[in-house]
Specification:
heterodimer; A: alpha/beta; Rossmann fold; 3 domains; 6-stranded mixed sheet; 5-stranded mixed sheet; 16 helices; 21 strands; B: alpha/beta; 5-stranded parallel sheet; 6 helices
């Protein structure tokens, strides 16, 4: 029996799962607290101790989002153009974008970047043959700083030689790759993604103390979000004779952020529509740092609005929702990040927060269709991806997986619940649950055994239906 | 033109007239100019962002539906604000509604900061020749 051991070293838990690659089954899984601050292997060994037979596994691979994950600062020229392109490249590589900067960096911004504790700086600006002065200025500013992080040059190729020279003379670690926006509004994020991934493997893992896992397993090979993105791609496109599902959307609601991954072209679904803005990557990931269920619970509530939240609770038949009890729960969520809802009321509030996180994150991910009235009659302009006709929406993340009514959470993202007619959110997709929380593990496995990982994940993705809530208020 | 010349091209405002825009792109590219074509319904912000990012030498604005004055006003000021104040701005098309005195229209757009203003029926070659001349003059100034 061929086995694969997949490990996800998260910020709170280290999760291990053991798969049977012959029968395409999950055999066992376990988890233990992550111990990256002391020695990551302590938590890992604890998780492994609960998995019988893990030593025999043919593959022993890990992904990680511990120690803050992979943190990148993106720099570009115009906010909507190269700065946005750099940000998308970083997100597509599974990183967390701490901040995006545009135009000429100031001394104050350099100081801010120095304090930001990022792992990589992604420097873009100018289309190929376009503006050079800005990126050269920014290279000089970085050269004059104390920053020691690796810098990836992904801007105007005509300025590349000069940028490299400036940074090399200042003894900076510099890597050159293709421009993230070689032509206006044309996105080219693959080369930058590849360099980020290589750097993650060669440097970042070491720096975060994650390379020690090699004493037990083969090693950490990618950031967790990259593994989820890989799984999304696999499920959508298939592998050889094993068919994929076609275009889909994945919503990953976490404690700190909500990630949305779409595998879809996002082209206008109706005729006569003018599609504007940056080209959309087929594989697109967005991350909402203010929409999380625990660490970011307060900012999530702010984004929802207290009144809206009250109305929603009342709509579900909670008459005393103006009271303090639910507010207390909200406040305690940020402090008690490993909180698991117990009572029906707590579960309902958790589900409601999840529903709103899904709704808002998808609202920011999808495109908009605007009607413009011209002397020739109305015309339509689309910005971003049209995901109205998407067939599958997959939910993952602790809150969805552990909630007894996951469909209630996922439903929040549907067009009818967005209450903004111009949003191009999914209208009537099938709602699917990653019920064993396996997407990241399967994405990891996809690199070495794509056919088997696709067969496994298809088995564990289950269609879900809406259920009612019991009221015990 | 020895050094690569880049022109940002587009039809401004809520205007959806696409054909002239295509002809201009063809004519410019034919002369070795790098064309950044924003297509129809381009906003002032899009023209400026594109010009900054591509390091363009000129912005060519078309307006064919008669609302040119409203749509084109303020572009020069915004360019100045964005740090590309001395970029060449050309405008052409059916800039105003009805049969108005062309000289008045031209004066109006010149006052708005456009270097060249073209009436309907202008051939692309004329504007391209002007571009060559204007760019040479600029090099001379420096």
């Amino acid at each position: 029996m061929e086995l694969a051991l997949l490990i996800d070293i998260g910020s709170t838990y280290t999760k291990a799962s053991l798969f049977d690659l012959v029968n395409y089954q999950l055999i066992a899984r376990s988890q233990a607290y992550t111990t990256v601050e002391q020695d990551v292997n302590r938590g890992l060994a604890k998780a492994l101790a609960q998995l019988e037979g893990w030593e025999k596994a043919h593959y022993k691979l890990a992904c990680s989002s511990a120690a803050g994950g992979l943190k990148i600062i993106a720099i570009g020229l115009v906010p909507d153009l190269t700065a946005e392109a750099a940000k998308r490249a970083a997100l597509g590589a599974g990183s967390k974008v701490l901040k995006t900067y545009s135009y000429q960096l100031s001394t104050r911004e350099i100081a801010e970047i120095s304090q930001a504790d990022c792992d990589i700086i992604l420097l873009a600006g100018g289309t190929d043959g376009g503006d050079q002065s800005n990126i050269i200025h920014n290279a000089r500013m970085l050269a004059d700083s104390q920053l020691a992080q690796p810098i990836i040059m992904a801007g105007n190729k005509s300025a590349a030689d000069q940028v490299i020279t400036i940074l090399k003379q200042a003894d900076k670690e510099i890597y050159q790759t293709g421009n993230v926006m070689p032509e206006l509004e044309e996105l080219n994020i693959e080369p930058a993604r590849k360099v980020i991934r290589d750097l993650f493997l060669k440097k970042i893992i070491e720096a975060k103390g994650l390379s020690r896992v090699k004493e037990l397993v083969d090693g950490v090979i990618m950031p967790t979000p990259a593994a989820v993105l890989k799984a999304a791609e696999l499920v959508a496109t298939g592998y050889n004779s094993e068919k994929g599902w076609g275009e889909l959307l994945i919503v990953d609601i976490g404690g700190a952020t909500t990630d949305v991954h779409s595998v879809a072209s996002g082209k206008p679904t109706k005729g006569g529509i003018n599609w504007r803005g940056l080209t959309e990557p087929y594989l697109k990931r967005t991350v909402e740092g203010d929409l999380g269920m625990r660490y970011s619970a307060l900012t999530l509530c702010e984004a929802i609005g207290t009144d809206t939240l009250k109305e929603q609770l009342q709509g579900l038949g909670w008459e005393d929702s103006g009271g303090e009890r639910y507010q207390q729960q909200l406040k305690s969520l940020c402090r008690q990040v490993d909180f698991i809802p117990g009572s029906k009321r707590e579960k309902l509030i958790d589900a409601l927060l999840g529903r709103n996180a899904a709704r808002l994150a998808v609202a920011r991910h999808v495109g908009k269709l605007k009607t413009i009235y011209t002397p020739m009659g109305p015309t339509y302009v689309q910005e971003g991806k049209d995901l109205t006709t998407i067939k599958y929406v997959i939910g993952t993340g602790g809150v969805i997986v552990n909630n007894h009514n996951p469909a209630f959470i996922l439903e929040g993202l549907l067009y009818k619940n967005q209450h903004q007619p111009e949003l191009l959110a999914p209208v009537a997709p099938e709602l699917i649950l990653d019920r064993e929380y396996l997407l990241a593990a399967v994405g990891l496995l996809a690199g070495v055994e794509p056919a088997a990982s696709l067969k496994i994940i298809k088995k564990y993705l289950a269609k879900i239906e809406l259920e009612g809530f019991e009221n015990d208020s | 033109m020895t050094e690569q010349v880049t022109v940002v091209l587009g039809v401004i405002g809520a205007d959806v007239h696409a054909i002239g825009n295509q002809i201009l792109e063809y004519a410019l590219a034919d002369q070795g100019v790098k064309v950044i074509n924003l297509g129809v319904m381009a906003t002032q912000q899009e023209f400026i962002a594109a010009a900054i990012e591509t390091g363009a030498n000129a912005i060519w604005v078309s307006s064919l539906y008669g609302h040119g004055e409203m749509d084109c006003r303020g572009l020069r000021e915004k360019c100045r604000e964005a740090g590309i104040g001395d970029i060449l701005l050309y405008v052409g098309g059916n800039l105003v509604i009805g049969r108005q005195n062309w000289e008045n229209t031209k004066r109006l757009f010149r006052q708005m900061g456009y270097d060249r203003v073209y009436p309907p029926g202008t051939l692309p070659e004329e504007a391209i020749a002007d571009l060559e001349r204007d760019l040479k003059e600029k090099v001379g100034e420096k």
